Request: fold
Amino acid sequence: GLSWTDSVGTWAVSSNKALCPALSGGIGIATVNLSTANAHVIAAVTRTAGNAGIVARYVDASNYLYAYHDGTNAVLVKKVAGSDETLVSAAAAYSDGANLCVITDGTEYRLHYRDELIGSGTSAGLPSGTRVGLFTSDTGNSFDNFNAWARGTEGQYSAALDRFLY
Reply:
């Protein structure tokens, strides 16, 4: 497996779920390097309070995308130079352990919750980091079944398909 980094706060595993028992500046972020900015990022999120979600295109604590559920809405935010810009915010019925997913490709993004598209669009100036991971604003939130993979738009899968092309 890949090595995780406690990018903000201190993270742990308890009962086979990730959690952040020590926040820093009111948030916790754990990341792993995917080596591509164009990715699918998905995790089963259980929220007890605050915001619980995932991170994509993480560069540093001032530049990244993050998606979360706040108990009422699914939200996608672009943080650039420390300033937040909400890209998507829509009502989405919360469910413990439901999947939250962000898909990024160039300037395009999509937010899914409970396997439903919540919103999509384009935005110039999206961060270009290659780290992905987990985001929380409460120590009681937990995460399971984290997955991330390259979109393949940079040729990651082309060699595997070459033998089938004529």
Summary: Helices lie at 158-161. The two ends are 35 Å apart (CA to CA).
